[in-house]
Amino acid sequence: MHVVRDLKKIQDIGFASRLDRKKLALVPTMGFFHQGHLSLMRWAKENADRVVVSVFVNPAQFGPGEDLDQYPRDHERDMELAKSLGIDYFFMPEADDLYPQGFDSWVELPGFSKKLCGISRPIHFKGVTTIVCKLLNLTMPHTAVFGLKDRQQFLIIQKMVNDLNMPVIIEGRPTIREHDGLAMSSRNAYLNPAQRESAPIIYNGLLMIRHEVLSGRTNCRQLEDQLKNYYLENITGSDIDYVSIVNSANLESSSRAGHGDFMAVSVRLGRARLIDNIDLYQAMEDCAE
Ligand code: AMP
Q1: Which domains does the chain have, with CATH numbers?
Q2: Among 4, 125, 135, 180, which is least packed by CB within 10 angstroms?
Q3: pTM for this model (two decimals)
């Protein structure tokens, strides 16, 4: 595995792959790998000739007072894990190289970025789209792989790529969970034992709502209220950021749960802000089969 820090060097690698007609897959991450990250890398290995994994804790997507400095990091372990999966290039750029003095170009999707997580994190997605755009320009991949745990991020990136005619396929992969249903996340490291014990309630609640939809209850406001109450009753010390049923085409709120809808939640548990989501339409389609 080659460890690359230099921007020019990774761009040469990307350009050479295009010239050689080799499929290159990019897996962008902020590091501190868990099985969710590894599942994206495994998919990339199986579906591309060469794989670049990037590890960069992107300062531009953290707002003032957020956890940029505390964000967990372990580059040595990450490198060992990536190497064990046969990753070809481990790209670890420096913030000063990506955002040199005078940097002033941003990619922004103001519509999609103001909803859900964007309400409490107003600059977050502007930072995400800008860094992903830069990573795509630097690696010129055939495919870039993202997790559906961050469903809003995935939809925003897919829209950016479509809107800007960027020559890359965006692949979304399913959420990998702990045995008790908690979605894996680097931020789970912030949970104390009591918080860790109650964290699976987040996903249990989503399953409960999916079950309600399967049973024919489709009034979204009622379903959202039901889930909020369930969290308030079952997770002590939780602070609900949002609970929302939206359509994946435009992230607009739905009034009746139907095709293309998913339920997304963000709950603060101590220092951790945990997000998760579930498809509601898939449940209905499964039921129709
Ligand atoms: P992060 O390092 O948290 O920025 O995540 C890097 C990539 O891994 C993103 O595309 C995430 O959506 C994805 N990811 C994070 N957690 C999971 C998970 N539990 N299952 C699948 N993919 C994940």
Answers
A1: 2-173 (3.40.50.620), 186-279 (3.30.1300.10)
A2: 180
A3: 0.97
